[in-house]
Backbone:
């Protein structure tokens, strides 16, 4: 082991990952600890009511906190290095180290203030919901070889359909039924043009977004504003408390006192993850996304499978769109998805096109978004605009391969025509 | 003579498809306008009246669209020429659109998809605005300096994309989508800083650019039309020359047509990718400069409107050719300018323009469909939208 040998790409990636963590922890130690101008108490407030253990708040000195968490991060980076030496994974160490740096940052940013910790996590989860749905739709499409830039349009169509139908019927269930269909309709355009006509899928997705934005804006101004009482005043879903799970300290009220959409989201994530890696359908989907010719040669109908998966993706994203209206505010608003579809795309890429990776990325982006919201109220040393940029910068760093290169499924975006070039 | 005939024939063939696609989109938009008004469904018992009312409302909307984009008889009371005020507005909107459209067109020709024109436009607007209000320079020089500021800033911002693609293989679509968001947040932050805060104002608006830096109005003070449209025409011609008459342009097209072949022929692909994106950025940035120095005179949070996004539909409708891009930008400029009048005079929201734009591109993208509808043979379908993957 002592001999200097050539590193494999994976080892290189681990080395760079551990190195990045080390640099970041030192920067955190200096930036948040040493350079902190004044030390003041930070209070983490936990709103706990019915759980088994009651913690209300936790106060610590901001400089001590920053030092403490930075040192913890430093220890994790050292652990990551030793893992790298022993040729083992460093995922866990990186995640924990990253979390420690985040806590150090929080101590610095909220020095002398109070952070509603439960609210922070709860809000983060809610902001992640459409991202996770969108990213799952992306996984379904792109793993089978169809680029999906139209996530934004699918979400928006779902939001519109759910809002309008729930308003007309005064029944959230109908909204939840129609939203996936609207998403699937958008997917149908994508599927027909991408698979049947072999159109460039990036351009196609872009145009579909313009179409959906134009249509919903048009109908919003023409119908939903003038006839607001009938067309745009839908009911909202009520949260359902899950008996035992919701009593778990801290996590219970965050994860298990939500609306049906969020529970459906858990289900969809688990189902997609398991089916993609454990079932015949998943194996075929991945084969079609990586090497359609090989898949075809063993009798898989490439384009049929792609077509079906793109429609599934529309169903998932459409349901996610319902979150914006029946899941949150009831009424539809002009372009209310506000670029969430593109953050979902970023999460998909940041999560390396894997379902669980995408979920983690979506949660992280949701957390950053909510943190920004909370800090902009309490006041922070960093302009909120820079915090809003964070997911996008992170994605660029990911695709440029600074910390390990991300790679799309090999045949992603390339139409398949049997026996010929395209 | 036969050469001319061939040229005309070719032109006709390549213009047929966009024209028919546009016609179909206008028709579909008309149907949407006609049947989206719930009032007409009360007339369903008499089909003739039902259809008549529907088509009348679509007709009114499109009439208002033309009034708002070409000629309005109501404005001629004082001076007949004032009736053409809407046409001048079309040119005002078209100028930045031509430039951003050219940015996307040029990238297409080099095999790159520049979704980032929006962000590059923003950086151009920032550069033009800062030089425009912060410095005091003599008349012509100030304008040129502001434009230079825009080009440099936006060129660097665009070049970053090409550089990252050439060095790391990061797909330009992903990078430009992300950079667009970064640009808008950067602009919002900038407008909250002391330097860019207009005195006595709290809302995000920068100080006005000095008179010396503004682009001159060319048809008097009654019209907003300014030098920008001629800048746009001139630049379109330059891009045409660049693509067809220079080695550099040949390299762009070679890399666009077949990267591997270009590499084998000894061209430096990283250089081509970076330089083409620098120019694309500069073009979109010039669009931002024309918008700020020509018609807006100040940097605001919404300065970019949707110029960078419309640019993509413009380039696609223009079949990735400079002349086509100019014509498409004039068309969409007219839709934009007319859409405002339409929204004010009829109950039809301006967003129908977005629907029409998207449909035009969808119809163009599917030549098979348009051909089937019109039973055409022998029209050019073009391969400007052949698919490429994330990894290529």
Residues:
């Amino acid at each position: 082991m002592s001999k200097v040998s050539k590193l494999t790409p994976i080892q290189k990636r681990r080395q760079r990952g551990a190195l990045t963590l080390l640099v970041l922890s030192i920067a955190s130690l200096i930036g948040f600890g040493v350079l902190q101008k004044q030390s003041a108490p930070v209070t983490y407030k936990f709103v706990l009511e019915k759980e088994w253990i009651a913690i209300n708040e936790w106060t610590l000195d901001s400089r001590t906190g920053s030092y403490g968490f930075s040192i913890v991060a430093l220890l994790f980076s050292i652990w990551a290095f030793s893992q790298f030496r022993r040729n083992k994974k460093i995922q866990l160490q990186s995640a924990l180290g990253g979390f420690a740096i985040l806590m150090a940052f929080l101590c610095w940013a909220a020095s002398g203030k109070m952070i509603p910790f439960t609210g922070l996590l709860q809000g983060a989860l809610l902001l992640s919901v459409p991202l996770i749905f969108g990213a799952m739709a992306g996984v379904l499409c792109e793993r089978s070889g169809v680029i999906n830039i139209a996530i934004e349009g699918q979400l928006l169509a779902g939001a519109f359909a759910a809002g309008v139908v729930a308003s007309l019927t005064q029944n959230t269930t109908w909204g939840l039924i129609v939203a996936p269909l609207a998403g699937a309709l958008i997917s149908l355009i994508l599927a027909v043009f991408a698979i049947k006509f072999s159109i460039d899928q990036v351009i196609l997705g872009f145009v579909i977004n313009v179409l959906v934005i134009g249509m919903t804006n048009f109908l919003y101004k023409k119908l939903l504003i003038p006839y607001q009482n009938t067309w745009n005043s839908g009911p909202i879903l009520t949260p359902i408390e899950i008996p035992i799970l919701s009593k778990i300290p801290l996590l219970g009220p965050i994860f298990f006192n939500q609306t049906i959409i969020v529970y459906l989201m858990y289900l969809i994530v688990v189902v997609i993850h398991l089916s993609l890696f454990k079932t015949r359908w998943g194996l075929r989907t991945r084969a079609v996304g990586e090497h359609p010719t090989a898949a075809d040669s063993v009798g898989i109908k490439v384009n049929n499978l792609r077509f079906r998966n793109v429609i599934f993706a529309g169903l998932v994203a459409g349901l996610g769109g319902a979150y914006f209206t029946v899941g949150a505010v009831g009424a539809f608003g002009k372009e209310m998805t506000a670029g969430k579809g593109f953050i979902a795309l970023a999460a998909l890429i940041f999560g390396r096109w894997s379902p669980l990776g995408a979920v983690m990325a979506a949660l992280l982006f949701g957390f950053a978004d909510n943190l920004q919201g909370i800090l902009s109220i309490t006041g922070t040393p960093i302009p909120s605009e820079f915090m809003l940029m964070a997911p996008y910068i992170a994605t660029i760093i990911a695709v440029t391969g600074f910390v390990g290169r991300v790679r799309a499924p090999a045949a992603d975006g390339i139409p398949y025509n049997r026996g010929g070039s395209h | 003579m036969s050469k001319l005939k061939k040229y005309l024939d070719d032109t006709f063939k390549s213009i047929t498809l966009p024209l028919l696609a546009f016609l179909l989109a206008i028709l579909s938009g008309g149907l949407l306008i006609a049947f989206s008004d719930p009032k007409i469904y009360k007339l369903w018992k008499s089909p003739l009246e039902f259809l008549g009312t529907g088509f009348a409302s679509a007709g009114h909307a499109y009439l208002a669209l033309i009034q708002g984009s070409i000629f309005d008889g109501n404005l001629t009371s004082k001076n007949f020429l004032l009736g053409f005020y809407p046409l001048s507005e079309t040119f005002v909107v078209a100028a930045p659109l031509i430039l951003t459209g050219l940015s996307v067109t040029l990238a297409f020709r080099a095999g790159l998809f520049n979704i980032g024109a929006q962000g590059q436009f923003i950086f151009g607007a920032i550069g033009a605005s800062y030089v425009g209000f912060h410095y005091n320079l003599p008349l012509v020089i100030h304008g040129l300096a502001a434009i230079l500021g825009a080009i440099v800033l936006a060129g660097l911002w665009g070049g970053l994309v090409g550089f990252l693609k050439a060095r790391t293989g990061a797909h330009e679509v992903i990078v430009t989508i992300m950079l667009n968001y970064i640009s808008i947040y950067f602009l919002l932050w900038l407008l909250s800083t002391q330097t860019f805060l207009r005195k006595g104002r709290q809302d995000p608006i920068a100080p006005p650019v000095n008179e010396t830096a503004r682009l001159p109005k060319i048809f008097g003070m009654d019209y907003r039309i300014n030098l920008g449209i001629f800048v746009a025409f001139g630049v379109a011609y330059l891009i045409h020359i660049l693509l067809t008459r220079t080695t550099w342009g040949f390299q762009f097209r070679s890399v666009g047509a077949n990267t591997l072949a270009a590499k084998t022929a000894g061209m430096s692909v990283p250089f081509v990718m970076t330089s083409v994106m620098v120019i694309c950025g500069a073009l979109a940035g010039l669009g931002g400069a024309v918008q700020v120095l020509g018609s807006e005179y100040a940097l605001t949070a919404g300065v970019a409107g949707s110029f960078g996004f419309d640019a993509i539909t413009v380039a696609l409708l223009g079949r990735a050719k400079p002349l086509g891009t100019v014509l498409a930008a004039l068309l969409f400029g007219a839709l934009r300018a007319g859409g405002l009048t339409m929204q004010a005079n009829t109950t039809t929201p301006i967003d129908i323009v977005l629907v029409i734009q998207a449909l035009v591109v969808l119809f163009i993208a599917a030549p098979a469909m348009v051909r089937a509808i019109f039973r055409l043979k022998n029209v050019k379908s073009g391969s400007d939208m052949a698919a490429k993957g994330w990894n290529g």
Chain A is about 70% helix and 5% strand.
